[in-house]
């Protein structure tokens, strides 16, 4: 479940990743009239990668703004329930994590670079927690599709650990990809559509801006 672990801006409560502007605490499901997003089909020149790194609003924005990436879709992966709703995932009954599926041109951006971006744009050393969001749905997971991808992920974990960047060992799960389910439509491009959201202003956007300053050569012009 979404839980605040720090108090910032006493007079302005920063909502967690499940808040919608003007909405109550409850989350709409498809049965309530909330439409799920449609997954794009990979183009002939594209490959697909899937990562989970906390709230998918920020992760989607990071990957979507990389040169060589055509699309990034927010959704759910790593669990056992087919076609889960956001509410189900938040309750912890599905085993899924919030994830992002990335459609990219490997001639422009390599999987190895995507992996480096994945580890750089979140803290892979905090178990079941990213920023103000706490729970297994916010765990760090990298889903591999080939033995080569697994090897690249393990190599990057070794590199990050050796760098002492975080001062703690990486706890990211490295697991084979099984399925990805797109999230509800209102989650897609959330950072772009709702810049006024306190969570976006004080959590998602500052993290993206920090990443963009560190890796300007990767950002679309």
Q: Gist?
A:
With 221 residues, the chain is of the alpha+beta class.
Task: Write a structural description.
This protein has six helices and eight strands. The chain is of the alpha+beta class and 221 residues long. The protein has a single domain (36-213), classed as 2-Layer Sandwich (Peptide Methionine Sulfoxide Reductase, Chain A). The protein has a six-stranded mixed sheet. A two-stranded antiparallel sheet has the order 4-5. Helix 3 packs parallel to helix 4 (147-163). Residues 1-13 and 19-33 have low confidence and may be disordered.
Roughly how many Å apart are the termini?
37 Å
Low-confidence stretches: 1-13, 19-33
Question: Any idea what the CATH superfamily is called?
Answer: Peptide methionine sulphoxide reductase MsrA
Main sheet?
A: 6 strands, mixed
CATH secondary-structure class: Alpha Beta
Rg on CA atoms, Å: 16 Å
Mean pLDDT: 88
Helix share bin:
25-40%
Shape estimate: globular
The helix/strand class is alpha+beta
Strand content: 15-25%
The secondary-structure element order is EHEHEHEEEHEEHH
Number of helices: 6
- In CATH terms, what is the fold-level topology? Peptide Methionine Sulfoxide Reductase, Chain A
| CATH architecture designation | 2-Layer Sandwich
Strand order of the largest sheet: 7-6-1-3-2-8
User: How many distinct folded domains?
Assistant: 1
The count of strands amounts to 8
Which characteristics define this entry?
221 residues, alpha+beta, Peptide Methionine Sulfoxide Reductase, Chain A, 6-stranded mixed sheet, two-stranded antiparallel sheet, 6 helices, 29% helix, 18% strand, globular, disordered N terminus
């Amino acid at each position: 479940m979404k839980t605040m672990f720090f108090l910032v801006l006493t007079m302005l409560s920063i909502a967690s990743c499940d808040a919608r502007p003007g909405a109550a605490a409850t989350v709409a499901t498809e049965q309530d009239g909330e439409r799920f997003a449609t997954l794009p089909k990979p183009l002939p020149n594209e490959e697909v990668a899937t990562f989970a790194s906390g709230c998918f609003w920020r992760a989607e924005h990071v990957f979507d703004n990389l040169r060589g990436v055509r699309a990034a879709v927010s959704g759910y992966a790593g669990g056992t329930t087919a076609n889960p709703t956001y509410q189900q995932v938040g309750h912890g009954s599905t085993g899924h994590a919030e994830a992002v599926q990335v459609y990219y041109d490997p001639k422009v951006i390599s999987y190895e670079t995507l992996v480096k971006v994945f580890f750089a744009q979140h803290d892979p050393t905090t178990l079941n927690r990213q920023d103000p969001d706490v729970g297994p749905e916010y765990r760090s997971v990298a889903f591999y599709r080939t033995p080569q991808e697994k090897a690249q992920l393990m190599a990057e974990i070794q590199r990050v650990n050796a760098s002492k960047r975080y001062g703690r060992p990486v706890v990211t799960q490295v697991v084979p990809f099984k399925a990805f389910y797109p999230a509800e439509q209102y989650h897609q491009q959330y950072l772009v559509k709702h810049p006024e959201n306190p969570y976006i202003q004080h959590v998602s956007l500052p993290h993206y801006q920090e990443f963009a300053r560190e890796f300007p050569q990767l950002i679309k012009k």
